[in-house]
Prior knowledge:
single chain, four-stranded parallel beta sheet, alpha/beta, 12 helices
Amino acid sequence: MTKIRETKPHITPYDKLSFDAETLTGMLASGAAQAVLTDFFGSALYQELTGLAQEVAKTRTRGGKRVYVLPGIMGSQLGLMRARPKPPDVLWVDPIDIAFGRLTKLTLTERSAVVSLGVLLYGYIKLQLKLQRAGFDPVLWDYDWRRSIDDSGRRLAAQLREDPAREILLVAHSMGGLVARHALTLPGQTKVTRVVLLGTPNFGSLAAVQALRGTYSVVRKVAMLDWKHSAEQLAEQVFGSFASLYHLLPPAGRAGPINLFA
Length: 262
């Protein structure tokens, strides 16, 4: 198998593209880094996002209802912080790091230094801009999706309690809906008036079983990029360490004739 040499410092183009939502919105509105962002989003999506950002910049008014947007599993960037002015070391999703076999750094241990680095803007910046155009005040709420749903729910509940907004709406995709549901079982969530769940696996998902076995399509596609690990190795060494996947397992009686807990 061909060996890839990792150079130092290992700063990839994907590390340099780890903007926060506010910075990216400003760049889209002003036309900054047009060539780079066109390559990143593709021409059609870049043009659409630029139009939305410019429209928001001209018409946005403050004071709209606060809307928290919660991504699903794998919907937040994960990586390691670097000393400024260097960008963070993005591990998920960075195809170059995956090729080098660095996805194993996502293995969840008590000493893991990996943190959430923001929502994957490729998938959520359009929703933010459309919410802003409609008069809402959106917050793209990222979280470490490797950790248990209970842990993420407690963190969300704490932020919702501290938010000065008088009324809060939640829009949650996939596992984000389970995080939202757990947060709302905790004290002090009286400001949340509406919750929208998008594709939330309220009764678990067999995709979690597939991910743990290395047969899930995403795991296998990631393994095709990885020059050092097979899908089975990634499942055993990396995905199998994620507490969240075990929380996603269908409860007894919800997996058809299959008994996952026999």
